[in-house]
Amino acid sequence: MTAFVPTRTDDSSHTPDEGRPHSPSPPCRDTTRIPRIPRLPRPPRLPRIAAADLSASVAVFLIALPLSLGIALATGAPLQAGLVAAAAGGLVAGRLGGSPLQVSGPAAGLTVVTADLIQKYGWRTTCAITVLAGLVQLGLGFLRVARSALAVSPAIVHGMLAGIGITIAVAQLHIVLGGSPSSSVVDNIRALPAQLSHPQVAALSMSALTLTVLLAWPRVPGRVGRMLRTVPAALVAVAAATTTAALAGLTLPKVDLPSWRSHALSGLPEGPALGIVAAVLTTTLVCSVQSLLGAVAVDKLTARRPAQQGRSDLDRELLGQGAANIVSGTLGGLPVAGVAVRTSANVQAGALSRNSTMLHGVWITVAALLMVPFLELIPLAALAALVMAVGIQMVSLHHIRTVTRHREVLVYAVTTLAVVVLGVLEGVTLGIAMAVGVALHRLTRTRITRSVGPDGVHHVRVRGQLTFLAVPRLSRALHLVPPGADAVIELDGSFMDHAAYESLHDWQSAHTSHGGSVELTGRTGARLAEPHVKDDDGQSSHCHCRPWTPWRNHHCESPETPPPGGHRSGHQLASGISTFQRNTAPLVRGELARLAREGQQPSQLFLTCADSRLVTSMITSSGPGDLFVVRNVGNLVPPPGEESGDDSVAAAIEYAVEVLRVRSITVCGHSGCGAMQALMNTEPGGARTPLKRWLRHGLPSVERMTAEDRPWTRIAGRAPADATEQLCLTNVVQQLEHLRAYESVARALEEGVLELHGMYFHVGEAQAYLLTAAAPRDEEEGELFDRVAATALYDTQA
């Protein structure tokens, strides 16, 4: 969009006479328009880091340092690889990711996968696999498939994490006891009795001390406990074990960080091609799913913050994780993913932006370069105890209760057991197969029963989803109902396919033609809209609208065959009222009775167009008593002081603000507005019809749109489709200015008890846009309408 400014006739370099106030001459419009000179770019400013981000980064660093070393120890990788992954996760994923508060690094969920890769292919090839997995993540991010990864059942994800946690705990238990673990979980379990019978006292004592401090530190009561909990328990536990071992002079295996000059970097992958491909896919799957679920969990943690920055961009998060894995693998680091423990600590410490995540990466880098002598004092038994505790926590009782409540415990158990015995990829594959089997079982498990009540009414009850697989049993039950009898069909399910609907519809038609009656109800007894009804003349209307459709702008009547006398519209109105009395009134009667007693107390005034396609309750998800609605042609707000005849809108505004005390007023325009089209096409002069007299209040919007010294109102991310849409958007902003001119509105705004909002609804896209409060990036953009996103919520803490 090119903006123009009028030329000036005055000379800006002219010095005004002394003693006379200088008044610049007004701008003169000229037929020759010159483009506005672009501004020179401002010099870059140094980023400003909030104190909350600085303190949060230190807290996360103190947790990440021992955990990174412990996870590297558990995988069998060089201990420095954990620090490299933590630094790459903080700096790269923290800067590029779509979840600013999520902290990435070496994750416990990747321990089993990485340990298996190191055993099979060696460390350099494992680094290459990490790089390839990062490239795959980049590709998936560019394809924008991040949301589809969340389609995996939470029971599978929780089962995978539980299986990995069990594997970690069993392996680290050997190091806690002073031994060394095997690569197989089964072998580790078999070797446990012998290891338990001959423990090393020094290693076991340091591990016990670590676990004791780890469990007791968060439980110190009182004010002292609140002060102590500012220091992470993991850091205190490892520091206590390290100090005790040094003071007691215990001889224990300790952290060994070789020189960075001998640090192994990534090499070319060596091994069978199919094995490498399977390893890359496994690493990609675990890294991506854990990171995306972690981003969703961050949104839950920050949802109630007053200064929330919006939901995570999952596709961008996938790109950030892919870039971090490429950097980490290239520099000889572990695979990177979002880590729940560090992320939770980051949020709880009050982090405000991605600066805290990136600073934590800086501190990790400094520690890896300057704190090597101190890190080499840490006993390996203390790190093993710390990682074992993390593995045990991955078997979450909350997750088990959740999957049990949703009847998915079988999927959880199969996934967990398969991950422990077979491996991560095999376990997830079996979990997906089990989830599909459970879903098919639920879809086909339909109970159909028939009974006869004391009043002779035949009841056919359908429990479950009604699909083509249940049609034979449904037909048998329905044909047991005698011709001419009264029947009630009770449908207790959320789905009915076409075959089942046709079977039920055909039987209903035949049964009613023989003098019987059929009533379709839900489980609660509420009557459903019937698929086949008769009009007042006894003729079938042949309505094929689905009986389970809650709302649809459908027309059951056929326009080719109007009824005698042409009273079809009246019949449709009466039919709609009758349907309301049967189906809706019983559900809302209690709420309406409460509103009748208490009176209306709406929270906002909603001023929108009279267009029949705008259903205010639908697009705002509101109910009775929520909105005080004013509708008129063009959602216009006449400026105060206009001549009489336009007092209706002004009266509604005054009543809403002064009497109802609404807290907000929303002006909602929409696409394809006929009033705006009329404004664009109206010729000057002509008859002053009521419509033309009303539309004169929209002329300021036309002037605002065509003014050359005003930036356009637009939708963020795209240009307006045509001039009519541009006028619709501009009209919303102009009517908000008219609102501010009302005395009652201006007073409420000054007192801070009222807010004004602009909204635009695109009918064809079913998409709502809100007028943003943030300043535009460029003053030429003008006011911006931004898309209102719809984001699914997932019940997970992974």
Instruction: Please count the helical segments.
Output: 29
First-to-last CA distance: 45 Å
For the biggest β-sheet, the strand order reads: 10-9-11-13-14-15-12
The percentage of residues in β strands lies in: 5-15%
Q: What does the largest sheet look like?
A: 7 strands, mixed
Query: How helical, in percent, are the residues?
Result: 40-55%
Total strands: the figure is 15
Plain-language structure description:
The protein has 798 residues and is an alpha/beta fold. Helices cover 51% and strands 9% of the residues. A hairpin with a 4-residue loop joins β13 (755-762) and β14 (767-771). The chain is globular. It starts with a strand and ends in an 11-residue tail after the last strand.
Topology:
Elements: E1 4-5, E2 34-35, H1 51-75, H2 79-96, E3 104-105, H3 111-121, H4 123-142, H5 146-149, H6 154-176, H7 185-197, H8 201-216, H9 222-228, H10 233-248, H11 273-301, H12 314-330, E4 337-338, H13 340-348, H14 355-370, H15 372-375, H16 380-393, H17 397-405, H18 409-421, H19 424-444, E5 447-452, E6 458-463, H20 471-479, E7 486-492, H21 498-513, E8 517-521, H22 568-598, E9 604-609, H23 616-620, E10 627-632, H24 647-659, E11 664-670, H25 674-681, H26 690-695, H27 699-706, E12 714-715, H28 723-740, H29 743-751, E13 755-762, E14 767-771, E15 784-787
Parallel strand pairs: 6-7, 7-8, 9-10, 9-11, 11-13, 12-15
Antiparallel strand pairs: 1-2, 3-4, 5-6, 13-14, 14-15
Helix pairs in contact: 1-2, 1-3, 1-10, 1-13, 1-14, 1-16, 2-12, 2-14, 3-4, 4-11, 4-12, 6-7, 6-16, 6-18, 6-19, 8-10, 8-16, 11-12, 11-13, 18-19, 20-21, 27-28
